Amino acid sequence: MRQVNIVRLDLLSGQVEKKIDCVAEEVPLKINVNSQYSFVIWCSPSQFEELAVGHLIAEDILDSVDEIENLTSNYQENICEVKLKSGVNLSERLKNSRKGTRIIPLIKASTSAYQHDDRLSPVKSTLTIKAQVIFEAIDKMNEKAKGFKATGGLHDSAVFKSDGTMVAFSEDVGRHNTVDKVIGQGFLNKENFAECFMIITGRVPGDMIYKAAKVGLPIVASVAAVLNSGISSAEKANVTLVGFVRNKHMNIYTCPQRITC
């Protein structure tokens, strides 16, 4: 985050006050893969390596952490270098990648609520958790959300084990980035996602469900709203989708059997 000088107007009191305020910061992160494929993601200046790995998984470019030979980041130059092992055919992976753009050429347009629904495989998990565990998990996430408390300009995501133990956490200016970061963090630590659930603070569209289903996360819950594409993707991927988790209430949109009172 960055401190800036502001002028605050209070119309109720009529006061004009000069103050120091904290604002969220974003930078253009350049990710290089094998010096062959490069792209830029605008993100908060943290967890570059986790973001790169999580994004490459979601884009169907990376299948396993064991495929990574070297992973480095430079926070001064905003660069993350990913070197894959020689056995990985990057050119072939790029041909078959998801290419997660929200702009769809009309010649290839899909009538599905989310353009990559056809790539979703059902999540196989026997996980069940109590609703109270989700509420407690949100409290734990909020305690760590120091950036949001200071700026009001960040989203948060976290991954928890079934007993409520937090195994990954991130804050970022982009809600999709936070999901990539926690998935990347869990992926690098070789967490068993089938025994975990994810909490996010933003709206839930289909591409977020895709990211979760790609690594086998069976439950995605948000304090905010869900979108129709999120519901459609969750149904096809056998993911439990929960929204408006607040004030001891929650809306379960798909696969409600995984959550008990």
Description:
The protein is an alpha/beta fold and 261 residues long. It contains seven helices and 14 strands. The strands form four sheets. Strands 9-8-10-11-12-13 form a six-stranded mixed β-sheet, with helices on both faces. Helix 1 crosses helix 5 (175-188). It is globular. The N and C termini lie far apart (39 Å). Mean pLDDT is 92; it is low at 101-109.
Features of the shown structure:
261 residues, Ubiquitin-like (UB roll), Cytidine Deaminase, domain 2, six-stranded mixed sheet, 7 helices, 14 strands
Q: Count the beta strands.
A: 14
List the strand order in the largest sheet. 9-8-10-11-12-13
Average pLDDT score? 92
Largest sheet: 6 strands, mixed
The Cα radius of gyration reads 19 Å
Strand content: 25-35%
Determine the CATH topology of the largest domain. Cytidine Deaminase, domain 2
Distance between the termini: 39 Å
Task: Tell me which CATH architecture of the largest domain applies here.
Answer: 3-Layer(aba) Sandwich
Structural class given helices, strands, pairing? alpha/beta
Summarize the structure.
This protein is an alpha/beta fold and 261 residues long. The chain is 27% helix and 32% strand.
